Amino acid sequence: MKLSRLVKLFETFVPSSFAESFDNVGLICGDPGQNIRRILVAVDLTPAVLAEARKHRTQMVLTHHPPIFQKISRLINRPSQAGLIYQAIGANIALYAMHTNLDAIEGGTNNVLADILGITADLRPVRLSRTGSNYKLVVFVPVESVDPLSEALFAAGAGRIGHQHRYRECSFASGGVGTFHGDESTSPALGRPGRREYVQELRLETIVPARDLPAVLSALRTAHPYEEPAYDLIPLEPFDDRVGMGRVGKLTRAVTAATLLKRIKAGLAIKSLRLIGSDKPKVSIAAVVAGSLSDLMPDVISSGAEFLLTGEIKHHDALLAAQNNLTVAAVGHWSSERPGLVQLVRQLNAALKTTEVILSTADSDPITIR
Ligand SMILES: [Zn+2]
Predict the structure, then answer these.
(1) Exposed/middle/buried for 110, CB within 10 Å: 0-12, 13-18, 19+?
(2) How much distance in Å is there from the Cα of 128 to the middle of ligand 1?
(3) What confidence score (pLDDT) does residue 23 get?
(4) What was the pLDDT predicted at 132?
(5) Which CATH architecture has domain 105-129+243-330?
(6) Residue 234 C-alpha to ligand 1 middle, in angstroms?
(7) 3-state SS class at 348
(8) For the chain, which ranges sit under pLDDT 50?
(9) Which of 194, 228, 254, 336 has its CA 20 to 30 A from that of 220?
């Protein structure tokens, strides 16, 4: 599959617009015209992962952590992130990142961790993420013209909702009476200039992503019968109740923290973890935050969670957790993110016919515990 088509498909699965503002996701380097037959998936782009990509003759490495995150000014081939990118370009290997957008989406990194803990009810993000810019378009149209206008708006990108836009052509119409009074220079589609006209109209409402706005407004002007169509554009708050950082919810039934530690060790295939608090308390509400906890501790505490599974936690957040009777299992950054990629590989292989997606075996936690 052409890289440009693949990028479009990835955008429907894991939209870049769901990423945090500090992030750098999507296509990092590559030729949009290149044919991608095999993709290697890893948490990090490392020398071992790049060597594996060459061995398997893959045309893309898809990583969780963006290969370019901090500023890179020069691409010089020495032991560094810049050196790896230099080598990837030299080997004609495209680089693609799904990071905080993969953590945020429904069914992403955090949902996989929630499944391992057994959170089955009232599952919601710990903090909502911004999901990209959308507008509500409201347009007033004579009843008999609503169908061709809707067709044109939908064809230009309006009316798509839900994950992967599984619902299309979504709109709402309510009836009423519109008035207008055109001066002598006008040529109205209905009625005559120089007097007030009354028209049975529909108020047609639909949603438009910001990127499709120019095409949708152009389609509106072309397909609407009026010389001067009346419409409102209302910016919407960019949040979705299912998209955000971390997850919190109720366990199927209350268990001790020790039981959750067993589930974690089995589910993540790890022998040890860092524990804050006691393994004795009964837990009915649990939270997960893949990777580093970042600044989410206050949100986890206010969510009512009694137990938290995360990748890594800072000393002062550990103190805050202990003060709030929150038991925390820190499993290591890499271990908390790898299961999300196992699932991603499965999902991509099911969706892609001509491109094979393989999970890296050279990808590994740089930190070992003795
Ligand atoms: Zn991470």
Answers:
(1) buried
(2) 18
(3) 95
(4) 82
(5) 3-Layer(aba) Sandwich (3.40)
(6) 36
(7) helix
(8) none
(9) 194
Three-class secondary structure of residue 9 per DSSP: helix
Q: 274, 270, 256: which is closest to 328 by C-alpha?
A: 274
Q: Which residues are within 5 Å of ligand 1 (an ion), measured at CB? A: 291
Q: What is the pTM for the complete model shown?
A: 0.88
In the chain, which segments carry CATH 3.40.1390.30? 3-98+337-359, 105-129+243-330
Q: How far is the CA of 81 from the centre of ligand 1 (A)?
A: 16
DSSP 145-191: GHHHHHHHHHHTT-S-BSGGG-B-S--EEEEEEEEEE--TT---SSS
pLDDT in tens, 5-19: 999 999 989 999 999
**243 in Cβ contact with 104 (< 8 Å):** yes
CATH of domain 3-98+337-359: 3.40.1390.30
What is the CATH code of the structural domain delimited by 134-235? 3.30.70.120
- pLDDT at 164 (0 to 100): 72
pLDDT at 56: 97
- Asked if 75 contacts 98 with a C-beta cutoff of 8 angstroms, the reply is no
4 alpha carbon – ligand 1 mean position (Å): 26
Q: What is the pLDDT of residue 153?
A: 98
Q: Is 60 helix (H, G, I), strand (E, B) or coil?
A: strand
CA 70–ligand 1 middle distance (angstroms): 14
User: Which residues are within 8 A (CB) of 198 and not within 5 positions of it... i.e. 6 or more apart?
Assistant: 177, 178, 179
